[in-house]
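writing this on my phone so excuse typos. first protein, seq and then structure
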Amino acid sequence: MKRLFNIFIIVFSCSSLYAQQQTVGDLSVFINQSFNYFPQFKELGQAIDVEQQRITLAKATGLPSFQATGTYNYINPVSEISIPAGAQSLSFQIMPKNNYKTSVNGSYTLWDFGVVKAGVDRAKAGLMLAKDNLDYNKNQMAAQVSNIYFQIAYLKAAIQIQNSVIDFLERNKKDTEVKYKNGDALKYDVLSIQSSIDQENNRKIDLLTSLDKQYILMEYTTGMKMDKAPLGFTFPVQGLEDGAEQSLEHAWNYNPEFKLIKDRITQAEAELAVSKTGGKPSLTLNAGTGYINGYAPDIDRFRYNYTAGVTLNIPIYQGGRAKKQERLSESQLKQTRFAQETLNNTFKSNIKQVLTDINSNRSSLVNAGGQVAEAKEAQKLAQSRYKNGIGTNLELTSASTNVQKAELTKLQYEYQLCLAQVEMARLTGIKYW
């Protein structure tokens, strides 16, 4: 764990220096360009902004609210009082037929049993999930771009090997043609070498076609044309072969996928806290001021008034929705925790497999290097024997094929080792861009 942590710190501290030395062919250039170019990252960035607005909205729920109102009502008939006055009686209205009212009212929740706080916590959990989701997609995109990058490096190296094979066969064809003219070789030998050249050219065409497809895929991912050759199979981070337990611990702390599952647990816990506030009472302060008519003795006169009070709201029966919602939230939280255990087991298995691939390819590279040297030496001997009239065309062609196979095998191990390192960096969450 300490070693992996030191690697992480070194990569982080050296990132600024490395950025100054970047060229168009650098892997990190293409990875960072993909973050700026690929539309999905703009969408993920907007999702972060949306979650920040949700937090602001959740906090606004606990703020005071004010509203201005104006009303008019015509009422007929209205209540009247009759007072005897000698032979006649006097009638008085106790309320006007035309009723006017203007007011400014405000309310503020004094006590809500943590409803607002639970809503804010849920919104904050959503923001953290959105941020880590962006990091997760960056980690995935970095691995995808790296795979394309090293696939291009592999194909270009394979084409170089193919060119060397074709050049070797072309030279030997010329020697064989000279021998044929001198009567020391058969027409069959010349045709056999030409057939081998045609086969190797067809392989080269296949490699060039695959290379063009990878260039197209790189441009689709990054929006950049790859004008310069990749810088080989040197992965920016070395020393990723620590034990499975140390690598898993590093993944637990730094891999965005683990951060996402932790965020989902936090979000489920926040959702449970919100569901527990359902059906709780609330105490609200209400106040208002304005003008209204209807006051005796002049009931048509507009007069100033104000009101103040508190409202206690106690839900009695809601069909059991609050308890049902709480049980649902508890089940969702338990489901997310099980998903965390599944992810942990999956990563443990994947890390062990990648470590096996890294160690296996390193060991195979040592053997492949020896095989290349031996095959080239055998090729020189076969060529010398053929020029001196001792060897045959079949021996020479076989020696050339063995060199090609040995070099391609070594190249394949280098490529596989690099891809395994890319996968280990993805699993452990190490940033190399």
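second protein below, same order as before
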Amino acid sequence: MHFLILGATGRNGSLILAEALSCGHAVTALVRTPSSSSLPPQPQPNLTLVPGNPLCLPDIRTALQTPRAPDAVIVALNPRRVSDSPFAAPHPDTPESLMHDAVRNALEGMKAVGVLKIVINSMQGVGASSGSLTMPFRMLFEHTNMKYTLDDHRAVDALVTGKQGEGVDWVLVRPPMLTEGEALPVKDYGDDGKGICWIPKITRKSVAVFMVDAAEKPDWNRRSPVIAN
């Protein structure tokens, strides 16, 4: 299969890219900096790098046709912060609606070339999964800098489940707290996250494996699974 990845240089996106390539898929990655150290050494078989910005619709359109239209789009974007802490303030160069605006562009570009599947790295606490958060986590998400990320993810949800997502097979993957480590078995707790433990965790590599799996198969189409190890 052939995937277009948005956010391929991020901590999750680079792992998704590596997983897709290891599975034998062809990948196009829209990246601001093709020389980024988080990308595989070039030239890389089955990998096409397209310089550009997901906030620029013409760049999205170019990526969607280089070298050909993909079977699916995988989105692993996350707002930049002033440090690696998830509670750090947003970076001044990052718009608050980064993910929403990028996904809006992706949907518009996809429909123009007949690409009808998108898999998005969301987060636990959005949509029907909000009730699966414990009170301490709910307070953290609503009353710290995490609220900006949560709001952007909510806007993405409204976009893909609304009119602009009509006719598209979307998957909103909702992991909880992210950890480092190898890929481990993943449990799907449904769209509402019912039955998940109080402090759920999942390794980034586990998320990467699940995201590629969701792009390959129809099993999670038009679903928003909460996943954890």
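The chain has one domain: 2-228. thats all i got for now
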